[in-house]
Design goal:
alpha/beta; four-stranded parallel sheet; four-stranded antiparallel sheet; globular
Length: about 170
């Protein structure tokens, strides 16, 4: 799914949970909080997952990760957030190549606003794709913002191995 396959994966978490030992058992480095010291010692490509660190991560740190460091240090970043319009993630969101939206009743207005920004004039198409994708049990909508992705492949669902991929096209 991720090309090239990263040499290192670092999973950073805000609160310890039962998933941390499971992740460690897969050979993935886990870090409570931010991984500053670990990043300095990594060689090769690194995938950095920041889970539940939105409130404890400064705007400047995220800006640096999603602009300079991701482009110049072989660093891929996954930022898991509950508010796609939090002020400290504006630059990160604007530089993200992929967004994955889950079903959340409390943030449907955020999803609508995001859709109107990314698909002006096609908000109904976006909202229909979102509803279809997230109505599946555990469903999600992948928004592919990579500059090399053809426009007809921007919205997808069932993106994991073993699933029948779905591509949403405007009518």
């Amino acid at each position: 799914m991720i090309e090239p396959v990263p040499d290192n994966i670092i999973y950073c978490y805000g609160i310890f949970s039962d998933i941390v030992p499971l992740i460690e058992s897969m050979g993935i480095l886990t870090v409570a909080g931010l991984p500053d010291e670990h990043l300095k010692t990594m060689t090769g490509t690194t995938l950095l997952v920041l889970d539940d660190l939105m409130n404890s991560t400064s705007k400047e740190y995220l800006d640096s990760l999603f602009t300079m460091r991701s482009h110049h240090e072989g660093l891929g970043c996954i930022l898991i957030v509950q508010n796609i319009f939090a002020p400290n993630i504006k630059v990160a969101r604007g530089n993200a190549h992929y967004l994955v939206l889950m079903n959340g009743v409390a943030y449907r207005l955020q999803v609508r606003i995001l859709g109107s920004q990314l698909f002006p004039g096609k908000i109904k198409f976006f909202q229909d794709a979102y509803q279809k994708a997230v109505n599946e049990d555990g469903g999600s909508l992948l928004i592919d913002l990579h500059p090399k992705t053809p426009d007809q492949l921007r919205l997808r669902a069932n993106i994991f191995p073993g699933q029948e991929n779905i591509v949403y096209l405007p009518k």
